[in-house]
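Table S5 (text form). Sequence records supplied for joint modeling of the two-component complex.
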Amino acid sequence: MAEKKTTGNLRSQDPNQRRVLDSMTRHRRLTRQLEALEKDNFQDDPHASLPQLVKRLPQFDESNESGNESSKRRKKTRGDHFKQRFRKNFQALLEEEDLSVSEGPNYLIACAEPSKFPQRHFCAVCGFPSNYTCVSCGARYCCVRCLGTHHETRCLKWTV
Amino acid sequence: MSTLVLDNGACFAKIGYSHEKVSVIPNCQFRSKTSRLKTFTANQLDEIKDPSGLFFILPFQKGYLVNWDVQRKVWDHLFGKDMFKVDFADTNIVITEPYFNFSSIQDTMNEILFEEYQFQSALRINAGSLSAHRYFHENNSELCCIVVDSGFSFTHIVPYCRGRKMKEGICRINVGGKLLSNHLKEIISYRQLHVMDETYVINQVKEDVCYVSQNFYKDMEIAQLKGEDNTVMRDYVLPDFSSIKKGFCKPREEMNFTGKYKTGEQILRLTNERFAVPEMLFHPSDIGIQEMGIPEALVNSINNMPEEMQPHFYKNIVLTGGNTLFPGFRDRVYKEVRALAPVEYQVSVVLPQNPICYPWEGGKLLAENPDFEEMVVTREDYEENGHYVCEEKFDI
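The corresponding structure-token record, covering 556 residues in total, follows.
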């Protein structure tokens, strides 16, 4: 048992058997991380597993005083119409806009350009400025202790 | 004939009649693990006893209104009898939109305002335009200003000249409050305690404890010291919703620098996260987003403007939006812009008293403006001419 543990530890640092990710994979990993930062919630909807509730009865005390019958009916049909038409997500709406044909400033052109200043690097484990890079996956680290933590926890886990 | 001003933001909706005060209300729905049947809308958040693991349903995606179901539910609640009791036939509405809003979203907004809610008249405008209006109202002699709107989804830098926005100069940085909170969640979850589900709590941590450092590398060195010398380190007590309702930062006198705390509270020890997280607004490349930070984008945007106007823009930089509330934000922006701007120009950065409600106050002034009647589109106008009249009149 003890032998297995030590060989396991050594294997990750043995230059012949260490797996190295190429730049494409590293880039994909980075994109994945950035997309994860855009999420609203990391947990699932707590109501997702519940059975569908019975449709609520219309509330008669709603402020429909302005309503003549036609506007009330129009409201109801409009509601369903919206539900079907407007379930698009952001990406679909952006493609629909078809901005390549329009001229002048638009959503895509307004995006900021890459910075002229060089990128600063921080240790993936402790957050302080880093000087060194992990050979396998390209993550930054500042000291050998952080490298150890990195190898034990994150290195090459969840590779694309 | 009253006017309702609604600054429809991705995180908070700032809403109020133009003759009353503004209310800042979350613009989303919440679901909780504990109360299984109910979905809470907007300010019903106060009714939730246990905001741990709170699930957010936001109508906005990347800053644009995508989910109309949720938005309509929130608006129904706000316009209904519990909140503002809006009498639609007798009310004008001033509502804000993001820059370069998609035409399909604009059309849907027209339909909803005029056909579903049936407002008497409506004005759709960018939030920054309202801020610029407010700024020019106070500083009558200035011709140009540049508005930095750093909100939940992104940050926009928009130059205004004589009340009109200059589209060529608009710059968008895809870093906003949501990104900062999510990043903070990730690093805390990796280094200390798993908090990935606790958006609401960590948002509170970010607002209480984070600040913008004036000298980044020096603060980094101080944060690495041990014990009492580390003036950057703070301990944050997490809420457990039974005895501690709201998290708070422990004052320095009570902190225990060596060893553990005796009480049973959950503590987060924050050192470099305090200033490294807001640093992303100034250097998005720190986490790999290849975009300019706020000071660089400001200078870049001004450089795209005609030369005669540039000194006027440098003299009138206005900061709005929730992210500007970090302590030290204004001074840092001034320092960096001063370093990048040409020597002969005067640089002045203004942070209003209440940056979150600044556009709302601009909307209030606009509603009282004598020209207001010409700027809006009435319902009769819309029913005759359709979307075309809105496209013409509103400059989004």
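Note: Chain B touches chain A through 75 residues (CB under 8 Å).
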